[in-house]
Specification:
Layout: H1 7-14, H2 16-27, E1 33-39, H3 45-50, E2 54-61, H4 64-73, E3 80-84, E4 96-101, H5 113-120, E5 124-131, E6 134-144, E7 150-151, E8 158-160, E9 165-171, E10 179-187, E11 192-204, E12 210-211, E13 221-230, E14 235-243, E15 252-255
Parallel strand pairs: 1-2, 1-4, 2-3, 4-5
Antiparallel strand pairs: 6-8, 6-9, 6-11, 7-13, 10-14, 11-12, 11-13, 14-15
The chain binds S-adenosylmethionine.
The site of S-adenosylmethionine has 20 residues, from helix 1, helix 3 and strand 2.
Length: 256
């Protein structure tokens, strides 16, 4: 099937590892399920995957141009209803068996995954499930070339000064406070100047499928810190704060 998309959603469709992990998680549902929501449906690709597993799919997209693409792409699927709405302003009439929500980004800071899931969960059946199921975040000490928050993309260089340590995990079925705040102790590896943190997010599609960062699903985030000379095996204590859904401007870091 050929999808009409915006340039951004076209890049999302080209990321095969991202798509395959959602496809495999959705395919674990048999074909006799009732209601699924696809929140932030974009081009409608995940609704298309859901269409052979659910009787009714309610797909919400807040951007009007993107909504129009999804509506056209899914016009021949009578069990998919595409709605142009912000999820946070939408009151669902039917309770869902499954919520699919791909508003992911690294540590869930820059997109509305957590506020949206917290709202939509009120309309999930007691036995209902969410794809993805949750995330695992790791942190590393690094030396960065750039002094502003940026993503680890082509052309970005940095040196790593620790192993990756898990600093937080979320299960989307739990009630999640978007205000994240934690003091993290990271053991340095090697000697040199540390001036930043690298955050990596792994996406748990379900209990069996974990997807690492891919080009369009949570590329690692690089966050500046003050300069600190570290020696091998030093413990570096860092305070990390951000508000999930409020953007990278909400990130605050400091040494303790
Ligand atoms: C990362 S894209 C994923 C698109 C599609 N689900 C996919 O997997 O290719 C997230 C989409 O969610 C939409 N979105 C973000 N916040 C939203 C909100 N509060 N309500 C509805 N849509 C939202 C964006 O416009 C964007 O199209």
């Amino acid at each position: 099937m050929k999808f009409k998309t915006t340039p951004y959603h076209s890049d999302l469709l080209k990321d095969q590892e991202r798509l395959a992990s959602f496809y495999n998680a959705i395919c674990e549902y048999s074909s006799d399920n009732k209601v699924a929501y696809d929140l932030g449906c974009g081009s409608g690709i995940l609704s298309y995957f859901l269409s052979s597993h659910f009787e009714k799919i309610i797909s919400l997209e807040k951007d009007v141009k993107t909504f129009q693409c999804a509506k056209d792409n899914l016009a021949n699927f009578s069990n998919v209803q595409v709605i142009n709405s912000d999820v946070l302003e939408y009151n669902f009439e039917k309770k869902a068996d499954l919520i699919v929500c791909e508003m992911m980004d690294t540590a869930l800071i820059d997109e509305e995954q957590i506020p949206v899931i917290n709202h939509a969960k009120k309309f999930l059946k007691k036995t209902g499930e969410i794809i993805p199921k949750g995330i695992i975040n790791t942190v590393e000490l690094v030396n960065l070339e750039r002094d502003y928050v940026h993503w680890d993309e082509d052309g970005v260089h940095y040196e790593v000064f620790s192993d990756a340590e898990v600093y937080s995990k979320f299960d989307f079925l739990d009630e999640i406070n978007p205000n994240f705040e934690k003091t993290i102790s990271i053991k340095a590896k090697g000697e040199g100047i540390v001036n930043g943190l690298k955050i990596t997010t792994f996406t748990k599609l379900n209990d069996d499928i974990i997807c690492g960062p891919t080009p369009m699903l949570n590329p690692p985030l690089l966050i500046p810190l003050g300069n600190r000379l570290v020696k091998n095996n030093d413990f570096i204590n860092v305070e990390l704060k951000y508000i999930m859904g409020k953007g990278i401007e909400s990130i605050k870091t400091d040494y303790l």
